[in-house]
Specification:
Elements: H1 2-9, H2 12-37, H3 45-52, H4 66-83, E1 89-90, E2 93-94, H5 103-120, H6 126-148, H7 158-177, E3 186-187, E4 194-195, H8 203-208, H9 217-247, H10 252-258
Antiparallel strand pairs: 1-2, 3-4
Helix pairs in contact: 4-9, 5-6, 6-7, 7-9
């Protein structure tokens, strides 16, 4: 009887998190409806984007010129050359530790990844349980970035958030590339059981196999790694943009209007 109660109480944190997620989704939909749908112009792409980025702080409003764009493209190519080599994994570990794959960023990504497996397992849909680990790992910092756009002055945090997103894409890309080869040593979602190289298949094997995409695992992994390099380049560029914004003279009239 006691063990049955303990088993059922393990669902309490998941239920609480689920209720919080439902509440957040409800508030977002409610705000979207009243601030976008019920406006005079109605549901337009402009209104939708203004709702997402009311203070015009996203990359679409960065300062760009020919020289900076050229340097940004060169940086992306350089990062791809460094971080997307033909062989990403060997002997059960990454080829090298890097700015995109290190113990500092691994821990939060790992916790989000594994908690997502455990949380969504409640649904009982096996494919989604496998998939949500990597998907939520990537989406979690993306949602934090979207939320940060609702706060004025978020450009200070943008480089860190872009870097966080880049690390999730990079780790997920390596994981996807290993779907067939199984060269990585893995950990179970219980965060206790460990498996040596080749003992078990990773998440992406079970994600891609039902979709008939297993033969393209390395290509999918490489695309995610390239996206990671692009995000890292924008993280670096966003620092430049931050100082460009600081160097601008304060427009008092615009500040008064915004208030």
């Amino acid at each position: 009887m006691f063990f049955n109660l303990v088993y059922y109480f393990t669902f309490v944190p998941k239920i609480i998190v689920g209720l919080v997620l439902v509440y957040i989704i409800f508030k977002v939909i409610h705000s979207f409806y009243y601030n976008v749908v019920l406006t005079e112009e109605g549901l337009t792409l402009k209104n939708i984007y203004n709702f997402i980025d009311p203070y015009k702080q996203s990359v679409f409003y960065y300062e760009y010129n020919f020289v900076l764009v050229f340097l940004l493209l060169c940086l992306i190519v350089f990062l791809c050359y460094i971080y997307v080599p033909p062989e990403m994994i060997e002997d059960g570990k990454y080829v090298k530790d890097s700015i995109l794959s290190n113990s500092f960023t691994y821990l939060p990504n790992y916790l989000v990844h594994e908690f997502s497996h455990r949380f969504w397992a409640i649904i009982g849909w096996d494919w989604w349980t496998w998939a949500c680990g990597s998907f939520v790992e990537i989406l979690f910092p993306c949602f934090i970035y979207l939320f940060s756009l609702q706060l004025k002055g978020t450009t200070l945090f943008t480089p860190f958030l872009f870097y966080w997103i880049a690390t999730t894409l990079y780790d997920t890309g390596i994981y996807a590339s290993d779907a067939v080869a199984s060269k990585l040593a893995l950990t179970s979602s219980d965060m206790v059981s460990n498996f040596n190289t080749g003992e078990v298949k990773g998440d992406w094997y079970y994600i891609l196999k039902p979709l008939g995409l297993l033969d393209y695992a390395e290509e999918i992994g490489f695309m995610l790694e390239i996206l990671a390099c692009i995000m890292l380049a924008f993280a670096i560029y966003s620092i430049i943009n931050y100082f460009i914004c600081l160097s601008k003279p304060l427009n008092l009239e615009e500040e008064k209007f915004n208030k």
